[in-house]
Write a structure and sequence with these properties.
Blueprint lengths: L5 E3 L2 H12 L7 E5 L6 H11 L14 E6 L2 E7 L7 H5 L11 E5 L13 E8 L2 E8 L2 H13 L8
Parallel strand pairs: 2-5, 2-6, 4-5
Antiparallel strand pairs: 1-7, 3-4, 6-7
Helix pairs in contact: 1-2
Length: about 160
């Protein structure tokens, strides 16, 4: 069961969580990925993409701002707003069309575009915890609740970190 604070002891566990999460994504879902630099956000996205069948490289979109993937049954947009200094930069970048109800949007550093980027259905916060990291999950919509419920049902051995 996905616990409110799921401990991920290593990179392999983060990738496995991403592969499991991939099976719970549906078109139009917006997922915020929160955490400091090096917390594992892009590693989680890599796991999601592997779970969807993507075999090529998975780049952090820090400089490109977005990486687009047409995989499996989904169009996936991986955003990284780390370099934004003002939320209006999101509008200037022309990303409004990307949020069309058809694509899954995975957004790193969403707070850098706060007020411009659409609200999240699911928020995943990653942070260093002992020798690994912890992941916590929140839903902000019925669609988000459905995703987290699916994830909880598919995660065989998640444990809570105290």
């Amino acid at each position: 069961m996905v616990a409110p604070n799921t401990f991920l002891p290593d990179e392999a566990a983060t990738l496995a969580l991403g592969r499991t999460l991939a099976r719970c994504l549906e078109p139009g879902l917006i997922v915020y990925l929160r955490g400091e630099l090096g917390a594992g956000k892009t590693t989680l996205v890599r796991g999601i993409l592997r779970g969807l069948g993507h075999e090529g490289p998975v780049r952090s979109p820090t400089y490109a701002l977005v990486e687009l993937y047409a995989v499996s049954r989904l169009d996936l947009h991986h955003f990284d707003f780390y370099r934004f200094h003002d939320p209006r930069e999101w509008i200037d970048a022309g990303f409004r069309e990307s949020f069309n109800g058809q694509s899954v949007s995975l957004i790193e550093w969403p707070e850098r575009a706060e007020g411009s980027v659409p609200p999240a259905d699911v928020e995943i916060a990653l942070q260093a915890s002992g020798s690994g990291r912890s992941a916590s999950f929140t839903h902000n919509s019925v669609r988000g609740q459905k995703c987290i419920t699916c994830l909880a049902a598919r995660c065989p051995t998640s444990s809570s970190d105290s």
